[in-house]
C-alpha cells in the first residue's frame, strides 16, 4: 500500500510523492507435522486448555482490575507526559549528511520507494501534469544529492502508534539509466568500540651489541 507524503526543505524544494514499503521478503511455507502426518500449529494455551480465536482480549486495567479506554489515559516517560506518534504527512528535510552515513552510521529498519503523486486531481490531464511537476521536483533533489554525495535526513513516522519517533534518510539510487529516491527508516545507530586510527607499525627487535676480541 502506498501513502502520500510531501517533501520540503529550506532551499525551496516542495513536491508530493507516494512511498511504498519494499521490504516484502517472502518466507518459505514450512509446515510442522506429527508422526501421523497431521498438520500441527503453535497455539496459545491457558492452564492446559487450547484458546480459540477471540478467546482473549487486551484491556487497559489498573491494579484493582478497573478497565479504561485508551482515550481517557495520559502517558508518561521519566516523569514527563508524552504523546503518541502521528503519521508523518510532510517530510521536512532537517539537513544533509554524507551518503556513507546511510550504511556506516545507522541500521536501516525498513526502506520505501518514492514515486511522484498525482495530487489527487480529477481530470486525466491534471493528474498527468501533477505527476510530471512532482517528478521534476524529485529529479532536482536527486541531482543535488547525487552530485554532492549526500543524503537528506528528517523525522519520519510511518504509522500512528507507539511513542518513540524515528528519523530517516532520503537517498538517491541509480541502476544503469534508471534513477530514483529511497527512504530508509532508522532502526538504531551503529556503535563501534574498536575503531583504529592508523595502521600500527610492527616493533623492531633491538639488536644487542656483541663483544669480539678478534
Task: Give a verbal description of the structure.
The structure is a single chain. This protein has helices spanning 101-104, 124-148, and strands spanning 2-8, 14-21, 32-33, 39-40, 45-46, 49-50, 60-61, 67-68, 75-77, 80-82, 90-92, 95-98, 106-116, 150-155, 167-175, 178-189. It is mainly β and 214 residues long. The chain has a domain at 2-22 and 85-189: Ku70, Chain: A, Domain 2, CATH 2.40.290.10. It has an eight-stranded mixed sheet. Strand 3 (32-33) and strand 4 (39-40) form a beta hairpin. It is extended and about 100 Å long. The mean pLDDT is 89.
Give a concise summary.
The chain has helices at residues 101-104, 124-148; strands at 2-8, 14-21, 32-33, 39-40, 45-46, 49-50, 60-61, 67-68, 75-77, 80-82, 90-92, 95-98, 106-116, 150-155, 167-175, 178-189.
Mean pLDDT, nearest integer? 89
Strand elements, count: 16
- CATH secondary-structure class of the domain at 2-22 and 85-189: Mainly Beta
Going by helix content, strand content and strand pairing, the class is mainly beta
Strand order within the widest beta sheet: 11-1-2-13-16-15-14-12
Largest sheet: 8 strands, mixed
State the helix count.
2
Portion in helices: 10-25%
Amino acid at each position: 500500500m502506498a501513502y502520500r507524503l510531501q517533501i520540503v526543505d529550506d532551499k525551496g524544494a516542495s513536491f508530493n510523492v507516494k512511498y511504498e514499503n519494499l521490504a516484502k521478503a517472502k518466507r518459505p511455507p514450512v509446515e510442522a507435522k506429527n508422526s501421523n502426518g497431521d498438520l500441527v500449529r503453535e497455539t496459545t494455551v491457558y492452564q492446559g486448555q487450547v484458546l480459540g480465536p477471540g478467546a482473549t482480549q487486551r484491556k487497559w486495567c489498573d491494579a484493582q482490575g478497573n478497565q479504561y479506554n485508551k482515550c481517557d489515559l495520559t502517558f508518561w516517560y521519566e516523569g514527563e507526559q508524552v504523546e503518541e506518534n502521528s503519521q508523518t504527512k510532510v517530510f521536512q528535510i532537517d539537513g544533509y549528511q554524507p551518503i556513507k552515513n546511510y550504511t556506516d552510521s545507522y541500521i536501516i529498519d525498513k526502506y520505501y520507494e518514492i514515486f511522484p503523486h498525482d495530487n489527487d486531481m480529477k481530470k486525466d490531464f491534471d493528474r498527468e501534469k501533477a505527476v510530471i511537476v512532482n517528478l521534476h521536483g524529485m529529479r532536482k533533489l536527486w541531482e543535488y544529492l547525487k552530485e554532492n554525495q549526500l543524503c537528506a535526513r528528517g523525522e519520519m513516522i510511518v504509522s500512528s502508534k507507539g511513542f518513540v519517533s524515528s528519523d530517516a534518510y532520503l537517498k538517491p539510487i541509480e541502476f544503469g539509466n534508471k534513477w530514483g529516491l529511497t527512504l530508509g527508516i532508522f532502526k538504531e545507530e551503529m556503535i563501534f568500540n574498536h575503531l583504529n586510527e592508523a595502521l600500527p607499525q610492527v616493533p623492531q627487535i633491538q639488536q644487542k651489541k656483541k663483544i669480539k676480541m678478534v
